[in-house]
Amino acid sequence: MKNGDIAYLNYRQLVWRRLKKNRLGMLCGVILVGMYIVAIFADFFAPYDFTEPKPTDRYVPPQKIRFFAPDGFHLRPFVYGLTVEADPLTKEATYRPDTEKIYEIKFFTRGHSYKILGIIPANIHLIGSDGPMYLLGTDRMGRDLLSRIIHGARVSMTVGLIGVLLSIMIGSILGTASGYAGGMIDTGIQRVIELLSAFPSIPLWMALAAALPPTWSSIQVYIGITIILSLLGWGGLARQVRGKVMSVRDADYVLAAKSAGAGDFYIIRKCLLPSCYGHIIVTATMAIPGMILGETALSFLGLGIRPPMTSWGVLLEEAQRVTVVLQHPWLLLPAIPVIIVVICYNFLGDALRDATDPYGS
């Protein structure tokens, strides 16, 4: 401080200053932002059309990115071509690198057409090649697994955000009403929460997902799954908000607002909900992984997202059989982004929990 001046920081500035000190939480936040950017612009980052089957390239193993070839060092990365052979035991097609065919990996190259955000036509992709380039291999229909994982992020990660947003709206409103009103309203809301909590999550998700009409399109199923997850996930937040509201509803500033003639809606909006914002943010951050895992579980069981849309759960569905995993282990790769997202959200949630209490130890 200079010249005796005192710098006063508001609550948001205190939270941000404390959050920046948590390097692990900030790193996880950056990773999540990067993954959401990739999900939003999936068509640009994906080298191939994720719906295009190539029967001649079924179960191609991941190709290595190389810089060294028999003729020496290459400045640009490349992949070898593929030679197809028949496995003597399984009679399945197997693929071997063809060192005589070298395909450079090109950046910002032209490929299949798409629309940015569904509006602007484009055909530029981050990476591409003149030959087969399957960095994470292909599935049983010859579709590029890397492209399908990138497009699957668009569904799996947005389900968590949209589902939690709906849960926040429902849980905050009902939790505040329950804690502030008390009496029969409080009792009724709490009994509904207890009823929802009494059912096992996975069977209840499966029952509601199976009830979706089979004639619905992929978009309708996506919206239906999101609503199901949010309707079943608001109870925990509502109870926590209720407890927070009950702890501050008799505070001096709330009683002063009542004495000044403020209405119930004003008191809830201006006095009670702001005291819960930090708690709501932390709870929402911790709830998003549960939403993502819920969608993944439903899709893995065949009750979630339907083709032509894809998600990480849909991709993992192909790896249910042990024989497939033993012969084609790269089909388990979609589990890696699920693990990364869940871990990052948990660490970010821990960091936010500490940051939203800047006056604590």
CATH H-level homologous superfamily name of the largest domain: MetI-like
Rg over C-alpha atoms, rounded to the nearest angstrom:
26 Å
The topology string of helices and strands comes to HHHEEEEEHHHHHHHHHHH
Report the major sheet. Answer: 3 strands, antiparallel
Model description:
This protein is an alpha+beta fold and 361 residues long. The protein has two domains: 51-135, no CATH class; 148-355, MetI-like (MetI-like fold, Orthogonal Bundle). Helix content is 55%, strand content 14%. It has 14 helices and five strands. It has helices spanning 11-21, 23-40, 42-45, 145-181, 183-198, 201-210, 218-231, 235-248, 252-259, 264-272, 277-300, 312-317, 322-327, 335-355; strands at residues 66-69, 72-86, 93-104, 106-116, 120-128. The strands form two sheets. The chain has a three-stranded antiparallel sheet, with no helix packed on it. A two-stranded antiparallel sheet has the order 4-5. A hairpin with a 6-residue loop joins strand 2 and strand 3. The longest helix is centred in the middle third of the chain and has 37 residues, at 145-181. The radius of gyration is 26 Å and the shape is elongated. The protein starts with 10 loop residues before the first helix and ends in a 6-residue tail after the last helix.
